């Protein structure tokens, strides 16, 4: 193992690997330390979606830029990332939801996003298998350029491209301490030795809070258990990801033909409980066939769990902290880490390289939680 | 000769060996790279075969390998049945 790098990234998920790519592209010496395997945490367990329909200006802007990068990734990384832009259909159930949807669409359109409000009669033009009455839908919003990508293919595509540019990726290596000296980060201690570094980036997903604590930085992030299931493959019957903020459900038909989806478990569970439950399986199945009755005949193959790394406003924590200089955060994605990774990695690399950033992330600094008012993202599922 | 290891996802012995040569050291990595064991049989047919290849190629015994997490369901069940509908 090397004993020095300009930047050490803790965590080999999508964000760690994408950042390693963006840094090595700028000839910055970078090492990724992953205690398990690449995409072994939330990345490899996620719903794979890529959505631009958000309620806050910042998230919409970031997501739009992220989708633009996703569109260029196959060429840029010289690899298939399983990109599929079948749109996101957001089901609206009541007047309150419609008011929020109208506000969202107005804001999204003002930022240049192609998104529309659908009447109940138009919903099945987009996703023919949906039951408008069963969903209790009074409308929907639809953005055709939303979609999904393959989290494994995308993570490995970034990792392989980073390695070709000289990045070092170490799996099965655990960070045991973040080393500091007089208010400066000096490196990390791992179970395979120390690595000196000028920057340490905390991209450890649901374990970011522990990594931050090693540098005496207290993050408000709460690991929150999420459950998900996948069915057998079938011929393509729908293109869009279907979601509902009210029911919390999301589901899509993935590249190979399987239906993948989740819904919040009946009771919120925080901490590191990764037990898959029958309660989720029943609740998800019941809701899914209420939304799309024809799916009742499709068989579930597998269910699993993962964690959202949830912040008080459901938005990520990015960049510098009021702690050791050079200790940067890239966590707290609250369920949206995969879809935001391309733009987040680029902007953090630009921060480290001293370039003008492609997006303003100053509102996502960790110290925002000390202020009294912070804007909460409303459009969260799963 | 092409030898199919994972029948559900059409993964061959050559695919597995290629990924091991590319750095895969665990069954989970083979799963993530190749969809090995992600089909209807959930690895019941292929996993032992893949484990043997991985062990041989990486100089480990099968017992030393990091095994995949076994996840429910034991057998595929329809959404209708799980959602509480009667089979008719």
Termini Cα gap of chain A: 39 Å
Rounded to an integer, what's the Rg of chain B over CA atoms?
Answer: 15 Å
Mean pLDDT of chain B comes to 92
CATH superfamily of the largest domain in chain A: FAD/NAD(P)-binding domain
What are the segments of chain B in which pLDDT stays under 50 over at least 5 consecutive residues?
none
Radius of gyration of chain A: 20 Å
CATH class of chain B, please? Mainly Alpha
Number of domains of chain A: 2
**CATH class call of the largest domain in chain A:** Alpha Beta
Question: How would you name the oligomeric state of the polypeptide chains in this document?
Answer: heterodimer
Biggest interface, chains and residue tallies: A-B, 30 and 24 residues
CATH topology of chain B: Arc Repressor Mutant, subunit A
Description:
The complex is a heterodimer of chains A (382) and B (88). Chain A is globular and about 60 Å long. Chain A has 2 domains: 168 residues, FAD/NAD(P)-binding domain (3-Layer(bba) Sandwich); 149 residues, D-Amino Acid Oxidase, subunit A, domain 2 (D-Amino Acid Oxidase, Chain A, domain 2, 2-Layer Sandwich). Chain A has 9 helices and 18 strands. In chain A, the strands form 3 sheets. In chain A, strands 1, 2, 8, 9, 10, 11, 17 and 18 form an 8-stranded mixed sheet that branches. In chain A, strands 5-6-4-13-14-15-12-16 form an 8-stranded mixed sheet, sandwiched between helices. A two-stranded antiparallel ribbon of chain A has the order 3-7. By secondary structure, chain B is mainly alpha-helical. Chain B has a single domain, classed as Arc Repressor Mutant, subunit A (Orthogonal Bundle), CATH 1.10.10. Chain B has 4 helices and 3 strands, in the order ββαααβα. In chain B, a hairpin with a 4-residue loop joins strand 1 and strand 2. In chain B, helix 1 packs parallel to helix 3. The chains are: A alpha/beta (382), B mainly alpha (88). At the A-B interface, strand 12, helix 8 and strand 16 of A face helix 2, strand 3 and helix 4 of B.
